[in-house]
Amino acid sequence: MDQHPSKADKADNLIGTFELKRRAADEPGHVTDDGQELELGYLMRRHAWGAGLAFEAAAAVLRTAAAELPDQPVLVATRTANKR
């Protein structure tokens, strides 16, 4: 029996993605005049919700941004359906 996980098995282990990108100037909610702030975005599979994983991952991304880009504000937007 093959002891190596298949690509499908590896994909099942993915619980989400996080990104830090420049917020488009035409999007609302800017805090600088040029409107090119960084924005933290993420998407997580529903089975991973409620375990604090998004908080931990977001904190890690924000710590890295603060260390690498200390003078850059970071925006985080959420949907009203996200009760936490």
- Any idea what the radius of gyration is? 16 Å
Task: Catalogue the unreliable spans.
Answer: none
Main sheet makeup:
3 strands, mixed
H-E order: HEEHE
What is the count of β-strands?
A: 3
Q: Average pLDDT value?
A: 84
Give me the side-by-side strand order of the main sheet: 1-2-3
Describe the structure.
The protein is 27% helix and 20% strand. The chain is an alpha+beta fold. Strands 1-2-3 form a three-stranded mixed sheet, with helices on one face. Strand 2, helix 2 (53-68) and strand 3 form a beta-alpha-beta unit. The chain is elongated, with a radius of gyration of 16 Å.
Tags for this model:
single chain; alpha+beta; 84 residues; 3 strands; 27% helix; 20% strand; elongated; three-stranded mixed beta sheet
Q: Could you write a compact summary of the structure shown?
A:
Helix content is 27%, strand content 20%. The protein has 84 residues and is α+β, with helices and mostly antiparallel strands.
